[in-house]
Each structure stands twice: as C-alpha cells, then as structure tokens.
Automatic annotation (TrEMBL):
Composition skew (Low complexity), residue ranges: 15-26
Magnesium in keyword set: yes
Protein family: Belongs to the PanB family.
Binding site for 3-methyl-2-oxobutanoate: D72, S73, D111, K141
Enzyme Commission identifier(s): 2.1.2.11
Pathway this chain belongs to: Cofactor biosynthesis; (R)-pantothenate biosynthesis; (R)-pantoate from 3-methyl-2-oxobutanoate: step 1/2
Protein name: 3-methyl-2-oxobutanoate hydroxymethyltransferase
Main location: cytoplasm
Enzyme class, first EC level, given as a word: transferase
Subunit text: Homodecamer; pentamer of dimers.
GO biological process, one term: pantothenate biosynthetic process
A Pfam family per the record: Pantoate_transf
Annotated stretches, region: Disordered: 1-31
Gene name of the encoded protein: panB
Length: 294
C-alpha cells in the first residue's frame, strides 16, 4: 500500500472536535439575538447596517455593528434594479453566505424577498430554511403586519428566527402608493396591533421603516422585544441604515437621498478620486513603476 500522501492533513493539525478543548465556543445565532434583547432591558441601543459582501461585513463586524442585514435592497445597491421587487432568493443567498462567513460577532439577518414567502406559511418556511441552510444566515426578516402572524409562527416553529418589518414596506410600494410615511394619526394604533401580533407569533424583533417618531416610541413601549428604526425617530432600541447611504457611496448627480439618511463619509468622492488618479498614472506611464515590476 502506498504511504499516505504528505499533503494529507495530519491528525494533530486538525481542529479540535466541535465543543471540546479550550477554544471558545462560536457565538451562536441565539447568543447574538439574546444580546439585542439585553440591550432593550438595559436601556442601551444597538446599530445595524446592510452588508452584501465580505469586506463590508468584516469591517462592520470589527466596528462592533451588532446586526448585519443582507437586505433585499441588494436589488438597488448591488444589482442596480429600480426597486427591490425583482431580486430573487437565488441572487441573495450567495451574498448572505459571504456576509455570514465574514462576521464572527454580528447577528446576520437576510431579507426574504418579494414572492418568496407570501403564498403560504409552507412557502415561507421553505424559503427561510434556504437562507439558514445555504445562506448561513442566523435569522430572516419578513415585511408585513398581523396578517403574517401565522407565517411567522410556522417559521419560528421550524427553527427560523424571524425579525418583523412594519411601517413602510418597500416590497408593497405598488400597494402602498409609493415611498410614504406610514402610521400617521389613527394608523399608529394599527402599527401597535401589528407589532403585538408579530411578537405574539414569536418574532424576536420588530423593525419599523418611515413611521412618525411618536408612533415608533409607542410601538417600542407596547412590545417586550427590541425594536429597530429607519426613519422612525430615536426611541427604538436599534437603528439601521443601508451602508452605501451611511458611507456616502451612493450620491452624485440625480440621486435622491432620503431624509432619514446621515452620511458619515464621502466614499463616492474618495473612490472617484482614486479611480481618476489611477487612470492618469496608467495613461502617463507612472504606474506601474520599477517597484511594482518583476
Ligand atoms: N440605498 C437605499 N437606501 C434605502 O434606505 C433603501 C434602499 N436603498 N432600497 C430599498 C428600500 C427603499 N427605501 C426607501 C427609498 C426611498 C425613500 C424615500 O424617497 N423617502 C423620501 C420620501 C418621504 C415621504 O415622502 O414621506 C424621503 O425624503 O425620505 C424611502 C425609503 C428604503 N430602502
Ligand atoms: C432598509 C432595510 C431595513 C431593508 O429592509 C433593506 O435594506 O432591504
Ligand atoms: Mg429590505
């Protein structure tokens, strides 16, 4: 018999079996979710950003961002579609996997996209399973109110942690009549009902998009689970932004920046300058120089 090939892994170089030895146990999804619940109990806030790839996930995780969202906003911010409606599960899963394998601390949540969960609780469970199994996400986020309580219950029973998303739900923009603040006046009571029904169904968190600050505060007070806001004032437990908005990558001629966005950097300007300088160096012959050559 031939001797064992020298590049086969030697037993003493293999990692210790899972759960043995002194290596710290990996942070499970449950631990990461619990961290958010604790923040609300302690009156602390936490931050969430979208991420769609390896480097942003690593950087945001290192910065301590508690939650990374592989949003269906990848439709706009990765794939270049006008709305979030066309993006598919097959387009989001590889992005979720890239983020999940790059974030040792953050909770990784993936959006279930339009068309992948509405038909039945069974469809939603099947889609959620794909995001956890193939996308390696810890949890999924689902747009919709009390109407989806049975769907959320079925997913949670299947072992899929669910974040609820109420208020302005971009997947329903055609039904809602565009990008509009939701829950003004009497509609605030409806938001509270939705949040309570979704919490009762087992959602671990309720995200609110574009709702008046006082309505968001009332929702946060009405549920035990943590809440997250985007255009929802400052009384929520957490806050989320799309990372390209937060870092000023999006912008430039003809772009509309929503009122709820604060730009913390000018990545578009930085990248534009770098690309122009690189092009000039290539054209002038100053790059590559001898130090870059073999
Ligand atoms: N880059 C990016 N940022 C987002 O926040 C985002 C996406 N993409 N894609 C998916 C959805 C779509 N979202 C949007 C898009 C536009 C507005 C917007 O134009 N809001 C206006 C109108 C408010 C009003 O009329 O009441 C605003 O000024 O905030 C809001 C949310 C949020 N999501
Ligand atoms: C804006 C956030 C909440 C979202 O759902 C997304 O990025 O898809
Ligand atoms: Mg979304």
């Amino acid at each position: 018999m031939a001797p064992m090939s020298s590049d086969a892994p030697r037993h003493d170089e293999l990692p210790a079996p899972y759960g043995s030895g002194s290596a710290p146990a990996p942070r499970t999804g449950r631990t990461r979710i619990h961290h958010l619940a604790q923040a609300k109990e302690r009156g602390e806030r936490f931050a969430m950003l979208t991420a769609y790839d390896q480097y942003t996930a690593r950087i945001f995780d290192e910065a301590g961002i508690e939650v990374l969202l592989v949003g269906d906003s990848a439709a706009n911010n990765v794939y270049g579609y006008e709305t979030s409606l066309p993006v598919t599960v097959d387009e989001l899963i590889p992005l979720a996997r890239a983020v999940a394998v790059s974030a040792p601390h953050a909770l990784v949540v993936a959006d279930v996209p339009f068309g992948s969960y509405e038909a039945s609780p069974a469809q939603a469970v099947a889609t959620g399973v794909r995001f956890l199994k193939e996308g390696l996400a810890h949890a999924v986020k689902l747009e919709g109110g009390a109407y989806y309580a049975d769907t959320v219950r079925a997913m949670v029973q299947a072992g899929i942690p669910v974040m609820a998303h109420i208020g302005f739900t971009p997947q329903s923009e055609h039904a809602l009549g565009g990008y509009r603040v939701q829950g003004r006046g009497d509609a605030a009571a409806r938001l509270i009902e939705d949040a309570r029904a979704l919490e009762a169904a087992g959602a671990f968190c309720v995200l609110m998009e574009m709702v008046p600050a006082d309505a968001a505060a009332a929702v946060d007070a009405a549920v035990t689970v943590p809440t997250i806001g985007i255009g929802a004032g400052s009384a929520t437990t957490g806050q989320v932004l799309v990372w390209q908005d937060m870092a000023g990558l999006r912008g430039g001629p003809g772009t509309r920046i929503a009122k709820f966005v604060k730009q913390y950097a000018d990545l578009r300007g930085t990248l534009l300058e770098a690309a122009r300088a690189y092009r000039e160096d290539v054209r002038s012959g100053s790059f590559p120089g001898p130090e870059h050559s073999f």
